[in-house]
Amino acid sequence: MENEFGARLRKLREKRKITQSELAKLCDLGESTISFYESGKREPSYKILLSLAEKLNTTPNYLLTGKDEKDNLFWWEKDIPPTDIELENFIRNQPNLRIFGDPLSEDIKDDVMLALRAAWEAIKKERNASKQLKGK
């Protein structure tokens, strides 16, 4: 019986049109090793898990938990508003954010965060209105 890790591994491998043998070679593993992983007969070490994820262009977290790859996107790449923590970390930790060439002061960073939240709400309302018009 196939385990969840094995099923995800197989799905990603097949999606990328890679054979078990090819993936094994890419990860410097024996030919039957991928088959054992996919069937649940063996589990990879941490080092091999990292290699599998890299070769399949995914994350170890996705292979282990099935958490959607989109969950690993930055907040600005998602279709949901950023959490306060994501937004604040972005604004406060970006050394290249400047106004007229000057670094942002903490007060300006607060203002920028408020403006971004307001802009996001406006975009969200516009998208919802557009969806409603398309639905009619």
Please characterize this protein's 3D structure.
Helix 1 packs across helix 3 and helix 6 (84-93) packs across helix 7. The chain has a two-stranded antiparallel ribbon. It has 136 residues and is an all-alpha fold. The protein is 60% helix and 3% strand.
Which helices and strands, and how do they pair?
Elements (H helix, E strand, L loop, with lengths): L3 H12 L4 H7 L6 H7 L6 H10 L4 H6 L18 H10 L4 E2 L2 E2 L2 H30 L1
Antiparallel strand pairs: 1-2
Helix pairs in contact: 1-3, 6-7
List keywords for this structure.
136 residues; two-stranded antiparallel sheet; mainly alpha; 3% strand; single chain; 2 domains
What is the arithmetic mean of pLDDT? 85
Oligomer: single chain
Q: Might you state the CATH topology name of the largest domain?
A: 434 Repressor (Amino-terminal Domain)
Q: What structural class results from the helix and strand content?
A: mainly alpha
Q: Give the tally of structural domains.
A: 2
CATH class of the largest domain: Mainly Alpha
Could you give the order of the helices and strands? HHHHHHEEH
